[in-house]
Design brief:
Chain lengths: 251, 311
């Protein structure tokens, strides 16, 4: 079974689910975060050299790590509406559930786009300062980055890996397991994109570049949670291909 | 030059500072409680990280720091901020100062003990034990569930179980007892982590680069760090000799977790099997050093003074 895991606000995941189904991934299930949190049965087992998970969802569907073929993991957060205890207990429960989900999502058999990390359920969200350094190492052109103890809350978007505010026009390049998807990408930029995804150990990465005429192909950010719709059919082709391919993983 | 960040009187920081001074190494203290009197800035251009730290009247170039030891308390809980409202300029400055420090620590080529990103594996214990087993250690059989029947079966299989938090929230390891079984239905509200209880000696291994200090904790308590919670229990600490292979595995695990300094909790069974329970990425080593005399702080001081990180 193929899985698309998502939060209910993620319309790009719904788009990808429909597209992957049309590409012949079968059987494929769309599973939202709410039903994972209020599930009636969760069994996550770890022993030396073996991890397994069984989940029974409220609607009767079952997720079994041993029969999972590939996962598009778009989970961003644990919904809190189901938590009905005191504020302190809810906070504790949220931390516990998040830690459990990180372990489960990391343990899923590959291919997984993307495996969980402690810094993000669907891949590591890096601060913009870290992406800049990584982009430099990958050979991409970047702007100068500056931060001081008086300006941190002037640029909250840095926390999600961006150097520019969300309303700034950008062009997005996708990397899916070293395959680069995007329009009219110069070869050296494509190579830099491949390299940064490799350095970030993130199989599905959206890399953003300035869309201004003056500084084309200047790196302005990267995310493990890109808007997939921007990649169109070409991205769906790569996602479908990646999910249907056997991958070497940690398991 | 070395940068020490945290509360200077906190035992691990105090011990390291004392050893740095004995070694005659230059150092600067980023005292969180003096945040009003500091500021920090850095920039990244063409792959180079540069910046400045002001402490009082003195300005230091960030690129001159070759080692950083960082043990921060939550800056928003500093006593100096007690009477500040939630969004006061002073509180926001303190937050921004600490954020800038943490961001710089993530990108500087200096040896940082330890970077925040490397410490993250501790956030999820079952995630971390998946990493641990990749480096050759046995791990205790673990069940995380919200189903009481599975827990009863698991208990029947192993006879003795412990339970503890799944996340990095500090919790006291507890043995599953009859009184807990009576309230087992409560786990339906939130899954709980259960583990087989491993009989054997508790050994804490501190790894600093390629230096290793092993300490055995002899105790009858379930969690040797809290003997006062088990009636009639006490804990005695003593230096312990590991095999060369175990030393190699501990160094390898620390390096792969991108940690410069780790506190690895091992359980060594009477049959000689070695289980790894957890890796602490910000070990409060003073408890062990003060009980055994092992030169952990001195080794850490030398490590901080010896140059550029390989992580």
């Amino acid at each position: 079974m193929y899985l698309v895991l998502y939060n209910s606000y993620d319309t790009a995941a719904l788009w990808a689910f429909r597209g992957l189904k049309a590409h012949g991934l079968n059987p494929i299930e769309l599973v939202d975060a709410d039903s994972l949190v209020c599930n009636p049965y969760f069994e996550h087992r770890i022993k030396t050299n073996q991890v397994s998970t069984k989940i029974k969802l409220p609607d009767g569907r079952q997720i079994n790590s041993e029969t999972t073929l590939g996962v598009l993991n778009r989970l961003q957060s644990i919904p809190t509406a189901q938590l009905k205890a005191s504020k302190a207990d809810n906070l504790y429960a949220l931390q516990e559930l998040t830690a459990l989900f990180v372990s489960w999502l990391y343990s899923l058999p590959r291919p997984v786009l993307n495996p969980a990390t402690p810094q993000g359920l669907s891949g590591e969200f890096k601060h913009a300062s870290k992406w800049i350094l990584m982009a430099n190492s990958a050979g991409l052109t970047t702007a100068k980055y500056e931060q001081d103890s008086y300006d941190a809350d002037k640029a909250p978007f840095r926390w999600i890996g961006r150097l520019v505010p969300p309303e700034t026009p950008v062009k997005t390049v996708f990397v899916v397991y070293s395959q680069v998807v995007g329009k009219d990408i110069p070869p050296e930029v494509a190579e830099g994109c491949r390299r940064i995804a490799e350095l970030a150990e993130t199989p599905l990465l959206g890399i953003e570049f300035s869309d201004s005429f003056n500084d084309p192909w200047t790196f302005v950010g990267a995310t493990p949670f890109p808007d997939l719709t921007l990649g169109g059919e070409a991205l769906l082709d790569e996602l479908a291909h990646a999910l249907q391919s056997k991958r070497e993983g940690h398991r | 030059m070395i940068l020490l960040c945290g509360i200077p009187s906190e035992p691990p920081i105090a011990l390291v500072r004392e050893e740095i001074a004995k070694l005659g190494l230059p150092y600067v203290t980023f005292n969180q409680r003096m945040f009003d009197d500091m500021d920090l800035s850095f920039n990244i251009s063409e792959g180079q990280v540069k910046g400045k730290l002001r402490v009082g009247q003195v300005i230091y170039r960030l690129e001159d720091f070759k080692g950083v030891y960082i043990r921060l308390m939550n800056d928003q809980l500093l006593p100096e901020l007690k009477n500040e409202h939630a969004n006061s300029p002073r509180r926001r400055f303190c937050l921004a100062l600490h954020d800038t420090l943490i961001r710089w620590c993530e990108v500087t080529p200096a040896r940082v003990v330890n970077r925040t990103s490397a410490m993250a594996s501790n956030f999820s214990k079952p995630y971390q034990i998946q990493l641990i087993q990749q480096y050759g250690f046995k791990v205790p059989e673990t069940l995380i569930t919200n189903n009481p029947e599975l827990v009863k079966d698991f208990l029947h299989k192993h006879q003795r179980l412990i339970y503890k938090s799944i996340s990095g929230v500090r919790s006291i390891v507890q043995m599953l007892e009859q009184k807990d079984l009576n309230r087992l239905d409560l786990i339906r509200w939130c899954p709980v982590q259960f583990q087989e209880y491993i009989e054997g000696s508790n050994v804490r291994v501190h790894v600093i680069g390629t230096s290793v200090f092993a300490t055995a904790a002899t105790t009858t308590a379930t969690d040797y760090r809290y003997p006062q919670l088990s009636e009639g229990s006490s804990t005695e600490l003593g230096a312990y000799t590991l095999t060369d292979e175990t030393i190699r595995m501990c160094i390898n695990l620390t390096s792969h977790l991108k940690l410069e300094f780790s506190g690895i909790d091992l359980k060594i069974t009477p049959q000689g099997e070695i289980y790894c329970l957890e890796v602490n990425s910000s070990p409060g080593f003073s408890y062990y050093e003060l009980s055994t005399g092992q030169p952990i702080a001195k080794t850490l001081a030398q490590h901080l003074g010896s140059g550029i990180s390989t992580q």
